[in-house]
Amino acid sequence: MIKIAPSILSADFANLERDIKKVSSADYLHVDVMDGAFVPNITIGVPVVKSIRKCTDMFLDVHMMVEKPARYVEAFAKAGADLLSVHLEADHPTRIAEALRLMGECGVKKAVALRPITKAEAVLPYLEQLDMVLVMTVEPGFGGQAFMEEQLDVIRRVRALIEKYNPACELEVDGGISPKTAPLVTEAGANVLVAGSAVYGAADIPGAIQALRT
Ligand code: DX5
Ligand code: ZN
Question: Would the CB of 196 count as within 6 Å of ligand 1?
Fold first, then answer.
């Protein structure tokens, strides 16, 4: 089954509760945390995740675009995240392993994320313990960018590795997902689709979510 994860990066932050309710027919709520160091933009931090947790029961999929993410795993877990994804490029492999260990200790689901420059095989040391792999289909940092078609090959490779080593693991894609690109990524093996502008930019939001599922 294809799952849709609207990204609140495209919501109105002054009306976040209202905008979260608008996407309640989706499967996950995608929360983009950016630290101004791993990516040039600064967005949401721990206190905001804590407030979001109070106003929705949706599954909170927290995408940490943060340097040295192990430092913040416990705080985001306590704030109410259901799943955390850490970028493989954000620290040394031993510290990424430590971030995943902390997620296990805190009882949140575990994911690793790949920038477009990173090869699919980079997930291999972690794959057997993961709940999800996130393949970026834009350079992380901003909503509304154009889909990078060359990432379809990375999605296919990650899907093949998942089938071989951990078939229960989900494969999420993020960036430039629209009714036009959704069939390409699902065909390549993605089963969770993040969408910011395609959802929040639509006049009919439940309709836009439904359109991405097909
Ligand atoms: C980008 C973020 C995305 C972003 C996607 O760095 O990780 O989640 O919100 O936005 P769209 O769907 O507009 O490309
Ligand atoms: Zn994201």
Answer: yes
